[in-house]
Specification:
Number of helices: 7
Distance between the termini: 74 Å
Helix content: 55-70%
CATH architecture of the largest domain: Up-down Bundle
CATH class of the largest domain: Mainly Alpha
Number of strands: 4
Shape: globular
Order of helices and strands: HHHHHHHEEEE
Radius of gyration: 24 Å
Amino acid sequence: MPIETPKDKARKALKDVMLSLDNARKSGLVEDFKELPDTFIAFQVVAKHLPLLLQTLRCMRDRVKGGMTQEYAAVHQLTEACRARAGNLQNIFTEMKSVENPNAKMTKYRAVVSQDGTRVEDIMRGLLAEVTKSAVAPLVSDDLIKQLQDAKTEVDALEPSIKENQGGVVMTQLGNGIQPLHTGVGSQNNCSGGVQNNGSNATNHFGPESNRQ
């Protein structure tokens, strides 16, 4: 079996990252988000800059293919740092594309973020930080470097697509049994007796005397 050279590793890693970003671009085009409410502004900005990331990585790939042996290690290190982020971005945009209703899109987005804990703008910030750090001449042109810096400035200024501690779940128990624990933001109601613990101060509410054993 042939030994994988540093050049092979760099090219393979670049291919993987570019594939994930291109899949995200196809599933999350700017046109898909521009008609949505302002709550989706982060998606619009991130989608807008995906082609720039792809263009930059293509330039790096072409330079590597051209025989810039001294850059193999740097390119491979860059792509390894971006591989997981690119995959997460692809996953978010694909999940968002699967539903049409804006409220359903946001619900889907919250579900995805709750699993990996990373918002779409934070993923793009990480990608741009890594790419901007490695995008130097002669790997890429001065014009691309300037575009990357401008994109980074715009993405860094984005408001959070999901606010910290944003919740609002309401749980209501109508029958007998154990009341589920609710630690998020929102109301918790017990309608037919039993013990209810509310809030971070553990206030206890008991039902009528006739409902208590």
